[in-house]
Amino acid sequence: MAEPQPDSPVAPATGRRIAGLALPALGVLAAEPIYLLFDLAIVGRLGALSLAGLAIGALILSTLASQMTFLSYGTTARSARFFGAGDREAAVGEGVQATWLAIGLGTFIVLAVQIVAVPLVSALAAGGDVADAALPWVRIAIVGVPAILISSAGNGWMRGVQDTVRPLRYVVTGFTVSAILCPLLVYGWLGMPRLELAGSAVANLVGQWLAALMFCRALLVERVPLRIHPTVLRAQLAMGRDLILRTLAFQACFVSAGAVAARFGAAAVAAHQVVLQLWNLLALVLDSLAIAAQSLVGAALGAGALAHAKSVAWRVTIFSTAAAAVLAGIFAVGASVLPSVFTDDESVLDAIGVPWWFMVAQLPIAGIVFALDGVLLGAGDAKFMRNATLISALVGFLPLIWLSLAFGWGLLGIWSGLSTFMVLRLCFVCWRSFSGHWLVPGTAARG
């Protein structure tokens, strides 16, 4: 095959090219957590009851949305192959089908949650005033689910055609509008109605639908057929099934870890939560490189450039490992200072050392794992990723979590479980990458 040209979908994966995809993707990943912190700060001034209501509502919304990430990751894998093969219309067509899927699934979720909202909120909030505060927020905010899923599908196909700048612009625009509206509607400023907690939900809704409409407009501008193709939808759902099961395995692990940590006292669970949130933040940085790997690997395989796909895998893994090593160094050097940024409670600071050093040790491993996750997801190897994650969770993480509870190992046992989980995933993705089974050329993604 001819050497890829610098402006082609399979151009050399230079540091500049990888960064050009990864940095905007990082912005998209970081936008929501940043906005949620702002939303919490606004609602927090209404008092503890409103804050608790927001926490319950946000838990429901984020849990539902997180199960649908296949609309982004699965669509990227399929779209990128067509883009690499030089068929932009088919690449964007994957986005059309994913958007129809988003509308259908989103509408179903809205109806289902509206029907079960009262018992669902009551169960999570244990009834009482918190449930009463959360219910109106949930009923309003859930209407934004189709918009969230449309944006997820839009991110998917745009990453597939190696455009991560427009999604950042759309997402930031939506969150900016929400951020402007939130205090106006919560507090009734500038003549707006004072809606209090419900105002937060309305502000969320407006921003989400604005971003979704921008993604829909991007599809229309491409002038591709908008009709539904059942065969493509079925293929996307098949990949979605595997990615949903993978996501459920992650959630089972982290919910179990939090539940067990809570049984070792307030200091233990607080220390666990601080380090876990830091871990999640650092994972966003590494995930952005994984997204670049997805897009570049998918395009290379679509073009039949297997050697180039392997080159991309190596390069992104090296970049990700180097970034993770730098982060590990920063948090190792700052181990005596940085924890006090998050708390001044001596009991929490005493407990935080154990998970902190586990996090530092895991970061270089995570750099490799996350990069190769991106490589294999870009290849559409969703079935293998599902099995690897489930086995790692069932064999590594969950047994150690529950043994920690039984034998009183505390945070040492919990974070040993997380480390075992990461090491097992490392073994799986490295074996798969070296095996070459993921190097399947053409436009048909695996799974």
From TrEMBL:
One GO molecular-function entry: xenobiotic transmembrane transporter activity
Keywords per UniProt: Membrane, Transmembrane, Transmembrane helix
Gene Ontology CC annotation, any one: plasma membrane
Domain of life: Bacteria
Membrane topology recorded in Swiss-Prot or TrEMBL: Multi-pass membrane protein
Transmembrane domains' residue ranges: 21-42, 48-71, 98-125, 137-158, 170-190, 202-222, 243-266, 278-306, 318-342, 354-376, 388-407
Primary localization class, coarse: membrane
Pfam family, one: MatE
The keyword Metal-binding is annotated on this UniProt entry: no
Compartment(s): Membrane
Keyword field contains Iron: no
UniProt similarity note: Belongs to the multi antimicrobial extrusion (MATE) (TC 2.A.66.1) family.
Official protein name in the record: MATE family efflux transporter
